[in-house]
Amino acid sequence: MTWTIEREHGTDLDLEEVLRVYRDSGLGERRPIEETERMAAMVRNANLIVTCRVDGELVGIARSVSDFSYVTYLSDIAVVRSHQRSGIGRRLIEATRREAPQAKIVLLAAPAAREYYPRIGFAPHDSAWVLNP
Q: How far apart are CA 26 and CA 78, in angstroms?
């Protein structure tokens, strides 16, 4: 089994492949995966995407918006269930950090992942706010 972790442009990704990762990771439960055009825009407009492929198959994605200087908002990190707990998520975050080494990474954790992020060096922040449309 050969992993490749690399930066890719959202416009170059196969949307069906991306949607499969969202579905098979569990993140699709909290993203509008049934709204294909909206998901396409989310992927197309993210300016920092790092992927993991195993033997050529997309198994993980980290989708971010970054100014590459001060902050990177890690919007989504998804790894298909069959490859979770293998280090891929951590490697996706490390690769995201390498693309913007001076920027802090900010994310909103899924309820099931709240215990994961402190184990890999993230600190909690008690003043995040969300304004929904």
A: 8
